[in-house]
């Protein structure tokens, strides 16, 4: 065995394995080199073990220890067999697991292991000195060192095992804790859930009660108003009779008193009618009659009828929309809403102006009624849309407190809304917003037919049907009289015909008979649409009342007669 520590850049140590015992020495030297280079205890054992694994099969080989400190510092150990060959290079597998890199060539094995990053030239020099000073011990010494290492490794393993046991126990405890917490939380959740379910059940019950109460109220309103209407109408009729110039003459006093009776009765009738309207709207018994509406005409009519209500000195202005508005809504209901708003504005405005104007914004029609009247106290603003609510005090000016709730109800029925801003003492603005046309219904359950013929002498009536039939009929053909109707029917073979009964130059009934006489057309169902109260029409598949037509009714009748 020979070894020699070299100068800088030279190997740290070189030794030759001459006999079996040198395996212990190379093991020991390996550990020493590792220790001198600042490797941790575990790494020292790795290097030593790898060397003894290789050394056992490389008797005769030279082992060179070098430290590379330029770049990432590492320990390089080269085992060279010098012609004797390390065959087979047993032990390299074990060494491979212990070292970072192991390269096997024919008679040369290189082992590499990372060194602590701070190892530099200085450390290298000290290591060199330390190694030069230390002498290899005997195989027996190395064996006892190895034993000590084994014992300490065993102790370490035992310590790890104990630690693991403690950890396991702790983990189990934690698990039990988590489980307990989970159970507690689940119970609490279940209790909360039960509470929520009970709360909802109660809520539902309350809602049902409220609904019932509301329905009962509407029924009551409707019944009472009906009951009241007959006697009030009788009073008005009788008073009119008494006041008739052809009746027995009355004294001036009597005439005056009867005038008062008549005035009061008319007031009473108006309020009873209000009640009846509201009850009807609330029970959804009002079906809007959707049709194209001429807004200027509606405005004109309101201008004419309401102007007399403006107090002296109050300007009353209704401005036509700047551009023509194409509007499909219920004209009667729209007029009612606007009349209501304008009447209120005129009633509560002593000076200044009451003005109405319209504007289309984002596909909706906004109609504003603005006044410079007494305004509405802030505290009351939220409540004026409630039924029977009237602002107290100087405000009180007759009425029932039903006008605004009714107007809002109608606005909703038309797919719109009614809102208000008011500044007490300055005035109020009520704004009605409406869709330009009714929202399309859910078209999924609508019947579908190929072609429909609409026969009516009035273009507006044909237009209404055309609107209702969109989405139901693929083609809508129109005829303005019976003769052209027959020709179009023969040409287009419609799936069904909508027919107005009374047309100038030919009765609808005659057309039904004529159709029945043509073999190809005799099977086409005819739906009579009429303003007259006719009941049954011979030859017609169905009869619909013109004023109250709705899209739903059209859809239903199409589905029924073409089934
Ligand atoms: P009424 O039939 O009593 O007029 P409404 O529902 O139409 O019932 O109105 C409720 C209350 O709202 C009215 O009594 C009035 O105090 C107040 N109000 C309505 N419109 C106006 C307005 N333009 N200016 C001031 N107050 C108004």
TrEMBL record:
Provide the E.C. number(s) assigned to this enzyme.
2.7.13.3
Query: Where does the Histidine kinase domain start and stop, copy by copy?
Result: 223-438
Residue stretches making up the Response regulatory domain: 451-561
Gene Ontology molecular function, alphabetical: ATP binding
Q: Which InterPro entries match?
A: CheY-like_superfamily, HATPase_C_sf, HATPase_dom, His_kinase_dom, HisK_dim/P_dom, HisK_dim/P_sf, Sig_transdc_His_kin-like_C, Sig_transdc_resp-reg_receiver
Output the Pfam families linked to this UniProt entry: HATPase_c, HisKA, Response_reg
Reaction catalysed by this enzyme? ATP + protein L-histidine = ADP + protein N-phospho-L-histidine
List the PROSITE patterns.
Answer: HIS_KIN (PS50109), RESPONSE_REGULATORY (PS50110)
Q: Locate the 4-aspartylphosphate modifications and list their residues.
A: 500
Where in or outside the cell?
Answer: Cell membrane
Q: Which of UniProt's keywords are assigned here? A: ATP-binding, Coiled coil, Kinase, Nucleotide-binding, Phosphoprotein, Transferase, Two-component regulatory system
The source's domain of life comes to Bacteria
Residues folding into a coiled coil are 140-216
Record-given protein name: histidine kinase
Per the UniProt record, the source organism is Dactylosporangium maewongense
